[in-house]
Amino acid sequence: MDILTLTIVNLFIAGGAGALFWLLYLADKSQQHLLYWAIAASCMLVSSTLSTLFHFGLSLPYWLTPALGNTLIVSLHLTLLAGLYQYFRLSVKLRWFVSVIIIVFAMHFSDFAQQATANRLFLNFPLIIIINFFGLHLLFRQRHTALNGIYLVLKLAFVLNITQMSLRFLLLLSDKWQLGLFSNPDFIHNIGFFGLTSFALLIFGSSILLVYRQQQLTLQQYSERDALTGLLNRRVMEQKISAELDRCHRQARPCSLVIFDLDHFKQVNDAHGHLAGDAALCHVAAITSAQLRSYDLFFRYGGEEFVVCLPDTDATAAKHVANRIRRAIESSVPVHYPELKLTISAGLASTRHNTNLQELLLQADQALYQAKNTGRNQICSFATLATPGH
């Protein structure tokens, strides 16, 4: 493609991405990263517009092109980086970003910058490469399995941009030092337009995909999680526990289920109000979660009732875990309701042969019923109930 075609392509890429980011931001102004990415696309749009007018033969003053046009390209990379910082909930020092942009624009009016295109590239390339390295470093620090594919594309965009700019910078140096490696600064400048097109396609495309995928994950979380406690809800319990039971069966490993609820929970609501009841449920959810392993499954079963799935755990170990949870709840109080003294009763059941979820739930529920009937604030195992003489 010739330079004019590339600038027009860049203009359409930036215009489309910018329009989408602005619409998304206006729909939810709490998403500050969308604002920065909208500004980044707008910077590229204005820069590509100036470049298109220039290549159509329109005479533009130096302060517009190349001074403003080049500054906008630097601003594009800066605001992309700022958007990533905001997306990952990191603080953005806006004054530093603005200061860099002002300094870059001012540098274009130095005698050195005005002498040749190559000199302006000497000023801009190192800064853009450094900005891209910051973005790459930020992405390598992230761990999110569901988004790793998109993070990989973003990393690729930064790596390719750093590579092409570093090579062009080295070629410019070789020409300036007359090493004879390359002697066509205009080609180096022109190939940059193709590099910008590739970078824009990768970075804006993956950023849009990132927003879309994040919204999908958020909706999925809302559908799978209890609104009050943030725990997995009953709607997904059968699917997730059944998958664990199948895995444990294939590997000939035990799996245990614990059902527990708060003792005398109705009295909490009656005596202290439903806000206190909600606080009690959230408190129990938090205390219990702290006692579990990362791969244990914890559900709000309904009302004040909870279910814990303990993979690779036999009945003896499960009872130890359940008692640890019971003691932790008994010895703590909700932050804003120190007058609440909470206890739980629990029933547990463990797999035997091909025990399915419904059987385990029924067994654990029977054990819970026994725990309540024999005084509450205790753990009862179905294995004990099934033992002759009990």
From TrEMBL:
Residues 253-384 form the GGDEF domain. InterPro entries: Diguanylate_Cyclase, GGDEF_dom. PROSITE patterns: GGDEF. The keyword Transmembrane helix applies. CDD domains: GGDEF. The keyword Mitochondrion does not apply. It is an enzyme of class 2 (transferase). Keywords: Membrane, Transmembrane, Transmembrane helix. Its EC number is 2.7.7.65. The chain crosses the membrane at residues 6-27, 34-56, 62-85, 92-109, 121-140, 152-171, 191-212. NCBIfam families: GGDEF. PANTHER family: DIGUANYLATE CYCLASE DGCM-RELATED (PTHR45138:SF9), REGULATORY COMPONENTS OF SENSORY TRANSDUCTION SYSTEM (PTHR45138). This is diguanylate cyclase. The lineage of its organism: Bacteria, Pseudomonadati, Pseudomonadota, Gammaproteobacteria, Chromatiales.
